[in-house]
């Protein structure tokens, strides 16, 4: 019996095999980020940031671009698929997309349309659908060339900005889902190199920074929001968590700043006597983190007054963002269309083919409920003469 079991075990060893099609690490080019640009003659250029494994063992951190932790390679073709094929011919190792969490679209490509490029990235099994996607204010390749002073490479700096919620964050799957939805619109973060007045130690020593939001109608960029308008959009998309909201109380030039700790939003579509109405209910709870005035924030009447002013500021910010989307871009990245479709499917059928026009006519009613949970650990302003405090 023992001999029989031993024979079975020995024979089974011949049937075992490893991953026959696996690649060794030393045979791979690990891509950390990719930039896609429209270049001359309507060609597509892909530039990739490739990680240098030796930087791990030698302790190099990118201080010298010629011996940093990444380098750039490019490929150009009539399509992204052809460009990637040309790229592979310029790299001796097999391209590995598993660590590529950043895709950046150039400004000119964004204006022309990104549908073909998104189709390739989602259809090909190598790129990851949950990778972040951005739009560059200029050429996307320039973002890959940056040398951040704190991070190993620019893609890592950009990824951390997204996780810190500096702006809108969107993935390849988000783009696909929203462009296939009722509104056929999506918002993507807009990036450019951060300008610094300090003299850099080397060329391109800076980080990429998020400067606003690119608004897409179908697959083409139709406009941009600045950072203040982006904050309003982030409230509407339920993507705002870490932020501040400041007001200048009536009669003051100084500000009081609140940090929201809880933010909720509800959308209630209504069709009444032919009018399409969207009720937007915002709830904000937060703490005062800075008081530049001479107000004593332990005074309940002052707190009530400030709550009203915070409500007015947030309402105005959200309202301005919606107005720009409605009347300047005629584009619905906040998915009012989906909400009307869910509640009024029959009425939706009549407008779905010209929703952009109807979206511009929707009457927006915004209600904000703001509550200051705490004024901080002190009531009167710090380091302020006691007899000048408004109690």
What does this structure look like?
With 391 residues, the chain is an alpha/beta fold. It has 2 domains: 24-225, no CATH class; 226-391, Nutrient germinant receptor protein C, domain 3 (GMP Synthetase, Chain A, domain 3, 2-Layer Sandwich). The chain is 33% helix and 29% strand. The chain is built from 13 helices and 13 strands. The protein has helices at residues 2-15, 54-58, 80-89, 107-112, 115-123, 141-144, 154-163, 172-179, 227-236, 300-329, 336-343, 345-351, 355-361, and strands at residues 28-38, 44-51, 70-77, 94-96, 102-105, 132-136, 185-193, 208-217, 220-225, 245-247, 256-272, 275-291, 363-374. A hairpin with an 8-residue loop joins strand 10 and strand 11. The longest helix is centred in the last third of the chain and has 30 residues, at 300-329.
């Amino acid at each position: 019996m023992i001999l029989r079991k031993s024979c079975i075990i020995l024979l089974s060893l011949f049937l075992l095999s490893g991953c026959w099609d696996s690649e060794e690490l030393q045979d791979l080019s690990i891509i950390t980020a990719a930039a896609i640009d429209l270049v001359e003659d309507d060609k597509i250029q892909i530039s990739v940031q490739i990680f240098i494994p030796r930087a791990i063992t030698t302790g190099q951190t990118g201080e010298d671009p010629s011996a940093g932790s990444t380098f750039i390679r490019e490929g150009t073709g009539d399509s992204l698929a052809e460009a990637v094929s040309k790229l592979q011919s310029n790299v001796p190792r097999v391209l590995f997309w598993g660590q590529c969490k950043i895709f950046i679209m150039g400004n000119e490509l964004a204006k022309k349309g990104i549908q073909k490029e998104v189709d390739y990235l989602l259809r090909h099994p190598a790129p990851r659908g949950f990778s972040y996607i951005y739009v560059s204010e200029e050429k996307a390749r320039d973002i890959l060339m940056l040398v951040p002073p704190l991070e190993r490479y620019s893609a890592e700096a950009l990824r951390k900005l997204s996780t810190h919620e500096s702006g809108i964050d969107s993935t390849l799957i988000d783009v696909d889902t929203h462009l296939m939805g009722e509104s056929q619109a999506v918002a993507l973060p807009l990036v450019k190199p951060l300008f610094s007045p300090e003299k850099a130690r080397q060329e391109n020593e800076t980080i990429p920074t998020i400067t606003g939001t690119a608004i897409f109608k179908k697959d083409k960029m139709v406009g941009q929001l600045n950072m203040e308008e982006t904050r309003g959009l982030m409230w509407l998309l339920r993507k705002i968590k870490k932020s501040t909201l400041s007001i200048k109380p009536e009669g003051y030039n100084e500000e009081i700043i609140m940090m929201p700790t809880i933010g909720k939003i509800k959308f209630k579509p209504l069709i009444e006597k032919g009018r399409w109405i969207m009720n937007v209910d915002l709830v904000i709870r937060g703490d005062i983190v800075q008081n530049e005035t001479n107000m004593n924030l332990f005074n309940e009447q002052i707190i009530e007054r400030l709550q009203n002013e915070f409500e007015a500021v947030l309402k105005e910010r959200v309202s301005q963002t919606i107005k720009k989307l409605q009347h300047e871009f005629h584009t619905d990245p906040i998915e009012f269309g989906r909400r009307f479709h869910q509640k009024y499917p029959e009425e939706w059928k009549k407008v779905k083919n010209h929703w952009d026009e109807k979206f511009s006519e929707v009457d927006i009613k915004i209600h904000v409920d703001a509550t200051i949970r705490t004024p901080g650990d002190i009531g009167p302003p710090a380091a302020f003469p006691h007899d000048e405090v408004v109690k």
